[in-house]
Write a structure and sequence with these properties.
Shape: globular
Helix content: 25-40%
Number of strands: 5
Order of helices and strands: HHEHHEEEEH
Strand content: 5-15%
Number of helices: 5
Structural class: alpha+beta
Distance between the termini: 44 Å
Radius of gyration: 17 Å
């Protein structure tokens, strides 16, 4: 999807505070598109963009709650990305409910 088409398809999304954009290590949308021209912008991927109070779009590069970077892999299809996201949601729910396995590299001998 082209940058212009992505702009045209965006409907007035909610404004994200600059503090939250910084917390998610936001990259300006135009800069991201220049660095990753192969990235396929689907509706669900466009929905993750953050819009600041000036109307500029940002791409989150970090998920601060679990504390991991967001992978923009050219081989990761939208369907594959959704599958991984669903598995992650299920795993997180299981761990938060007191189940599941937590693997700690500092505790590898016990795992």
């Amino acid at each position: 999807m082209t940058l212009q088409r992505a702009r045209d398809e965006s409907e007035s999304p909610a404004v994200t505070s600059i503090d939250e954009i910084r917390r998610r290590k936001g990259m300006p949308f135009e800069e991201f598109c220049e660095q990753h021209p192969w990235w396929e912008w689907t509706e669900s991927r466009l929905a993750r963009r953050m819009i600041d109070d000036q109307g500029r779009a940002w791409v989150p590069m970090w998920e601060p709650d679990p504390g991991v970077g967001i992978c923009y892999d050219p081989e990761l299809t939208p369907a594959g990305e959704e599958f991984i996201a669903e598995l992650s949601r299920k795993a997180m729910a299981e761990v938060l409910a007191g189940g599941g396995d937590i693997f700690d590299p500092n505790d590898a001998d016990d795992d």
